[in-house]
Design a protein that fits this description.
The chain is an all-beta fold. The chain contains 2 helices and 35 strands. The strands form 8 sheets. Strands 1-2-35-34-33 form a 5-stranded antiparallel sheet, with no helix packed on it. Strands 19, 20, 21, 22 and 23 form a 5-stranded antiparallel sheet that branches. Strands 24, 25, 26, 27 and 28 form a 5-stranded antiparallel sheet that branches. A hairpin with a 2-residue loop joins strand 25 and strand 26. Keywords: Signal.
Length: about 500
């Protein structure tokens, strides 16, 4: 059973810079192994979650968080979709199984939730990284033994072919988007060129160059133009994302690493498909704040944590980028082997053994504790890529999954998940941040998965955010119509435990 509840938060008359406009609850039986939240701008939002071993549910809400439709899908895969695409009529998800040998493509109508499923096999070596779905075919971008490659598969003809992407080096797709009005595909690729200390024997491989390529292709994968965001003064671009300023002007931003070991972010401006300027900013500069952060802490951060970038936002002639540093946390748990009636299941034999004594055996293992989000930052740049200002955000947040815990809106308001609460503020103003909770109950290690709290937040559209959280709910199962079983004798000390049903409640909040 599923049900949706609407909770409207009535705020006090005190003037604040942000407010939670509405929160909805969506209840799912069982423990979903994964869930995805996909903003559709003013057209609403899609919640896609795995219900159990063989089923998934897709739900569309409008911009006021009213449920439009709900569809249940037979889905016998464990991992979340590797990627998805959206056009004006459908949202399409792709799942790969057996390391990419078999693909399933689910296309869901945005109007009514009706879906169809296509599948195909690919027996040749190919590592898919992204794709674009058309009405009767799919164009996948990835790599094979020859390098950057497309695989074009036609569902009607049941035929597929490889097409070279005409890029040199080891490639990783960073951005792959179909521009329907122009009927072209825009893409960004991170390229690494290798060399060998002993070229003849192909030994001692090292990276001699790294850069980013902006490329346009037609819908069959034929190259139209390409432009390189090259390394400069020992700084090598590693990742990339695209922000459109106008039809002719775009910004590419991402992370870089220098040959000295320093890391940071770069801003590159493209006009008419050609690079006009590229500027690099060290994390030491982007993480400045109060209290100051020393170089040793910054080095520890950039060496052991991964940056999860936020989606760049452009507004008021300012480009805003940022991200959060996270790391997987593990805890060592030690357990002792229980002995019964003095019997040691692992007795010691040998010259010095003593059969009259049993010594406890202990075993230690690493248990996943969650993802630690330590710090985040946002930075504002002008149209020439010059840094205007930046703000460090100290978080120290533990989250059960990798989610965006920091987001920026067009008016430069910042929303961040800290300690399970949502804090919204405008760092350019001096107004006090507004903090919201889904529950007033204090969160600790024992109840963290059962108390509702915010896990992720992102810019929905304009100046609106969409935030999500969840909690686990246990219900006792009482079937009054079931025939009563004969009471059985229980051993002394044995208790009769009631049957329980587990539900996951997902919360969605619209914030301004």
């Amino acid at each position: 059973m599923r049900k949706a509840f609407v909770i409207i938060f009535l705020l006090s008359c005190v003037k604040v810079s942000a407010q939670v406009l509405k929160t909805v609850e969506f209840e799912i039986n069982g423990r979903p192994t994964w869930q995805q939240l996909i903003p559709l701008g003013k057209d609403g939002i899609i919640l896609f979650a795995k219900k159990d071993i063989t089923k998934a549910v897709a739900v569309k809400f409008d911009a006021d968080l009213k449920k439009v439709w709900e569809s249940e899908i037979f889905l016998d895969v464990e991992k979340k979709p590797s990627s998805y695409t959206i056009d004006k009529d459908h949202i399409t998800f792709m799942f790969s199984e057996t390391k990419g040998m078999y693909y399933q493509v689910f296309s869901i109508s945005l109007k009514d939730g009706k879906f169809n499923n296509n599948g195909f096999e690919l027996r040749e070596f190919f590592q898919d990284q992204d794709y674009v779905f058309f009405k009767n075919r799919i164009l996948m971008a990835g790599v094979n033994e020859k390098g950057a490659t497309f695989y074009n598969y036609n569902f009607d003809a049941d035929l597929g072919e490889f097409i070279t992407a005409e890029l040199i080096g080891k490639a990783q797709v960073q951005y792959f988007n179909y521009d329907a009005p122009k009927n072209i595909i825009e893409s960004l690729w991170a390229i690494k060129e290798s060399a060998y200390a002993n070229q003849k024997k192909k030994k001692g491989e090292f990276i001699k160059d790294a850069y980013v390529v902006y490329a346009k292709y037609d819908t069959t994968g034929k190259l139209i133009i390409k432009n390189t965001i090259a390394s400069n003064a020992g700084n090598f671009p590693l990742t990339a994302t695209l922000t459109e300023i106008s039809p002719t002007t775009k910004f590419i931003s991402g992370t870089y690493q220098s040959n000295s070991g320093a890391k940071g972010m770069y801003i590159s401006k493209l006009e008419d498909g050609k690079t006009t300027t590229t500027k690099f900013y060290d994390y030491r500069q982007l993480l400045k704040g109060i209290p100051p952060i020393d170089d040793v802490t910054v080095k520890k951060l950039i060496d052991n944590f991964v940056l999860l970038p936020v989606k760049p936002v452009f507004g008021h002639n300012i480009l805003t980028i940022g991200g959060t540093f996270f790391q997987a946390n593990f805890q060592t748990v030690t357990t002792s082997t229980p002995y019964y009636n003095g019997y040691d299941p692992y007795p010691s034999y040998g010259r010095y053994s003593n059969s009259n004594y049993n010594y406890p055996r202990t075993q230690s293992k690493q248990v996943f504790k969650g993802y630690n989000y330590l710090n985040g930052f946002i930075a504002n740049f002008d149209l020439e890529g010059n840094l205007i200002n930046q703000h460090r955000i100290d978080m120290n947040l533990i989250s059960p999954q990798v989610e965006e815990a920091l987001s920026i809106s067009e008016d430069k308001s910042t929303a961040v998940c800290i300690k399970g609460a949502l804090t919204v503020s405008n760092l350019s103003e001096f107004a006090r941040p507004a903090t919201y909770r889904l529950s007033e109950e204090q969160i600790d290690v024992k109840n963290i998965q059962f108390v509702p709290s915010y896990h992720g937040v992102r810019n929905w559209y304009g100046n609106y955010f969409i935030a999500d959280g969840s909690r686990i709910k246990f219900e006792a199962i009482k079937d009054l119509d079931a025939p009563k079983e004969k009471p059985t004798k229980r051993k002394k000390g044995q208790q009769s435990l009631p049957q329980t049903n587990i539900k996951k409640i997902i919360y969605l909040s619209k914030v301004q």
